[in-house]
Design brief:
The chain has 513 residues and is an alpha/beta fold. Helices cover 33% and strands 16% of the residues. The chain has 16 helices and 17 strands. Strands 8-7-6-9-10-11-12 form a 7-stranded parallel sheet, sandwiched between helices. A 5-stranded parallel sheet has the order 2-1-3-4-5. The structure holds nicotinamide-adenine-dinucleotide.
Length: 513
């Protein structure tokens, strides 16, 4: 191991050489993919000359231009007329969203476009990826916004909350993609893969002057410098057992590792994804630090909570050879503390991450990758599909799941009901629900079931009636006039069963009056 460590610091690169940077890697592991598809297999090619580099750059420019113009086009999903003859839902899209998601919207019932002019009516919902949304981009007709992805910092969430508009995301849709990179990280840590590859390309190849006979002998002779350890039987500590962490747990068990998990705020849903007694759960991080050969973090970055969760105190409790994996956020691991561990030789393991760290850039024990965790076609498709399903559920039933600003609210539709459903967003004030139900009773509406939830300043109520209002539009106007705390009202047009969820004829928003 000592020889290996010495070789690492000697041979490993500060930065990859230009020729290697120019190498173009593109592959797809999808079985049966047609060769011409996006992501189809291409051979690995190293570009040798400046002329080749210009050709490559021109190609990249062409691809970027094509992508931009695709984004500007109106996505053509959900646009064709189908069997449905009711009033349709309208969705405005931004960015090039995967057709896997767009095709979830039933044709006819949904009109989906990136171009306002192509929609038959103003947008009722917005679906986007990375578009930086401005408050003025959101017309008063919009009931919800969904982002294909986890982060929502491109959306003015606070202002949308004030307007009573739920913002949704797609947590966990990229979990498998990240898990697979973590598995790769385990192997990069346990074996001298990157270091060995660098040695072959940049040391052996150069020193042997491209003589293949000599190169193949050196490849055999030098392998001892890059020997590693197997991961089977080793212990991995998984910090954060949510969508990604739970998948890492299962994968690690599959690789024959012992697993210790830590997550003091585990949700019930996440707990159900864990493989029960095949892993050990600890309530003290120190227990995980002391026992782990690998530590991987899968917690959100929260200032003051998960900032530098792994710092010098934590590292002092770890085994000296512990390998750290960080595919969550750079700031969760204190790079300066890791650096000092490397410098004074109290830490001899590697640090693998898809985030860079100013204290570790170029250090041979820090294998840093581009931010690749979620960068797979499948993750993009899963996010788009989940976003579409979440939005349809909200528009058609009022259900709120995966919202970053509204409470989770699910009221299962009743079988054989001929009543209407009313969704109300209001400021969370005492007595609000009582006022609403009193008003509805006075109008002869009989409530069969209801749910009332709140999150911060916002309350959300979904009410089912046994009957239909005679005039839904004026009823909503009267209710809004009576209850000043109401922000928006939305009748779901028709009865339940198969008819559930035509858009109501009238949509009230107080802030746009
Ligand atoms: N590298 C990438 O490309 C990439 C892609 C997606 C997500 N991520 C990162 O991965 C993180 C985890 O993603 P996820 O989808 O699993 O999220 P998640 O919300 O499903 O899981 C996070 C888990 O962390 C737990 N947790 C919160 N605070 C904790 C603490 N102080 N100690 C221990 N556990 C704590 C939560 O209870 C939850 O179970 C995200 O926050 C994001 O920063 C990175």
């Amino acid at each position: 191991m000592a020889a290996f460590a010495a070789q690492l610091s000697m041979a490993a690169p500060k930065a990859l050489p230009a020729q290697q940077l120019r190498a173009s890697y593109r592959s797809s592991f999808r079985a049966g993919a047609a060769p011409a598809r996006r992501g189809a297999v291409k051979t690995v090619s190293a570009v040798a000359s400046d002329a080749d580099e210009i050709v490559l750059l021109e190609k990249m420019l062409k691809i970027a231009k094509e992508r931009k113009s695709k984004e500007a086009e109106a996505p053509a999903a959900g646009g064709a007329d189908g069997e449905y003859d009711g009033k349709g839902f309208t969705i405005k899209t931004y960015n090039a969203i995967s057709p896997v998601g767009l095709n979830k919207y039933p044709k006819g019932k949904y009109r989906v476009s990136g171009d306002d002019a192509a929609l038959p009516a103003p947008a009722m919902a917005v679906m986007l990826r990375s578009q930086k949304l401005q408050v003025e981009d959101i017309p008063a007709t919009v009931r919800g916004i969904v982002r294909c992805g986890a982060g929502t910092n491109n959306i003015p969430v606070k202002e949308m909350t004030e307007r009573g508009i739920p913002v949704f995301n797609t947590p966990g849709a990229n979990a498998n993609a990240v898990k697979e990179l973590v598995v790769c990280g385990l192997l990069l840590a346990s074996r001298g893969i990157i270091e060995g590859n660098y040695h072959v390309n940049n040391v052996i190849n150069k020193e042997e002057g491209g003589d293949y006979e000599k190169i193949s002998k050196r490849i055999e002779a030098d392998k001892a410098m890059f020997g590693g350890l197997e991961i089977e039987g080793k212990t991995i500590g998984v910090i954060g057992l949510g969508a990604i962490g739970s998948k890492v747990v299962t994968a690690a068990l599959g690789l024959g590792m012992k697993v210790i998990g830590y997550d003091p705020v585990l949700s019930l849903d996440a707990a159900l994804q864990l493989p029960g007694d095949r892993m050990t759960r600890v309530t003290e991080l120190d227990d995980l630090f002391e026992a782990s050969d690998f530590i991987t973090v899968h917690v959100p970055y929260i200032k003051g909570v998960t900032h530098h969760l792994i710092n010098s105190e934590a590292l002092a409790k770890c085994k000296p050879g512990v390998h750290l994996l960080n595919f969550a956020r750079g700031e969760i691991i204190d790079g300066a503390a890791v650096r000092s561990g490397y410098d004074n030789n109290t830490l001899t393991g590697k640090y693998i991450s898809d985030f860079s760290d100013p204290d570790l850039m170029g250090h041979p024990r820090h294998i840093v990758l581009p931010h690749l965790g979620a960068s797979t076609e499948e993750a993009e498709e899963n996010s788009a599909a989940m976003a579409a399903t979440t939005m349809m559920d909200f528009l058609e039933t009022g259900t709120i799941r995966n919202s970053v600003n509204f409470p989770t609210t699910i009221l299962a539709p009743q079988k054989n009901s001929s009543g209407a459903r009313l969704c109300i967003v209001n400021r969370n004030e005492p007595g609000a629900l009582g006022e609403i139900t009193t008003f509805l009773g006075s109008k002869g509406l009989n409530i069969s079931q209801q749910i009332n939830t709140s999150r911060g300043d916002i309350a959300y109520t979904v009410i089912d009636f046994t009957n239909q209002p005679e005039d839904a539009d004026s009823l909503q106007a009267d209710l809004a006039a009576t209850c000043s705390f109401i922000i928006s009202l939305r009748f779901l047009g028709m009865v339940f069963d198969d008819e559930l969820g035509e858009p109501g004829t009238f949509f009230y928003v107080s802030w746009a009056q």
